[in-house]
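Dear colleagues,

As part of the handover before I leave the project, I'm documenting each prediction I ran so the next person doesn't have to rerun anything. This entry is a single chain, and its sequence is reproduced below.
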Amino acid sequence: MTSRRDALKSAVAFAALCALPRGARAQALSPSGAPFAPRPGDWRAFSVTTRIDVVAPAGAAPVQAWVPLPSIKAAEWQKPLGNEWTLSPGASATEVVDPRYGARMLHVVFAPGAEAPRVEVVSKVATRGRATDFAKPEAAELSPQERSLFTAPTELIPTDGIVKTTSDRLTAGLADDRAKARAVYDFIVENAYRKASTRGCGVGDVASLLASGDLGGKCADLNALFVGLLRAADIPARDLYGLRVAPSAFGYKSLGANSPTTTKAQHCRAEVWLEGLGWVAADPADVRKVVLEEPPGNNAVDADKVVAAREALFGAWEGNWIAFNDAHDLALPGSRGPKVGFLMYPEAEVAGARLDCLDPDGFKYSITASEVAV
């Protein structure tokens, strides 16, 4: 848990930030020495290769794998460009679409007794930076079905109990959804923290996180908290589960993939739906990542690079990341095992036993990303 001194520093820094005019806040500098100001620009295309080599005892059956595919189509910032795959002899593969969320995955079934079960999937996707201009409302509509989906509880993100009482406290007296969303965002930035010991990206168990009083976790925890608190206020919000694919153009070592090997570069982001603006980017988890990890590490919350990230990541993000899906509580087709809370990692089973997707060395999978011609 953060110390009292850290909490005091956070409160002081936030007060100082709020005292600045909005234009002055945006001038806080990124590590590159320039303002951190992601904007829509030229499209960039990336090729992401996921390779799974399943280690299975002789004769084990069934042996299956599931690979998330880029599913989010957003005219402003992401365009999936297709998927190709190669399989070991005797394997079969089917592209499956989840009926509730539209999440796409490749379901691979390997031949019984196959000596070296293997699949390699190449996904291509175009992406670019995004930023909401809050001064220029746009005509944007969310269908009743989508509004229902993105205000609904999930197994790990309830909207009652402690989530509802916390949401009510944070949003009490605020005039509109934008103010409420910003209040929730600032609450997480000020009171949560990135917990280095959390495995992978975290679990996203929002009620347990709040009940513990220890708001430590990683992106799947902290951004799920943002989503849950807003849904409890009847404001549509969603997690987007994906992968960092390139370095930050603004010099943030903690906010980019700094190697072609992206096996452990998974990252989820969040969005909130604001009337007249549409889906608005938000990533309070990455602000806390900058605090903890951006060189030299353990940065003060009033450091320029933290202030810059805090201001930019409510309304904008860089196009060095791709989104797979926004799904929760997914039943993997063909599996008799439990649902997955979200699909951001490759999954596999041997003889009905689920492999540990957070252990790519034991599971034997790798992910690489490279920029290609658009």
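Residues 76 and 130 are 7 Å apart (CA to CA). Confidence is low (pLDDT under 50) at residues 1-26.

All the best with the project,
I.
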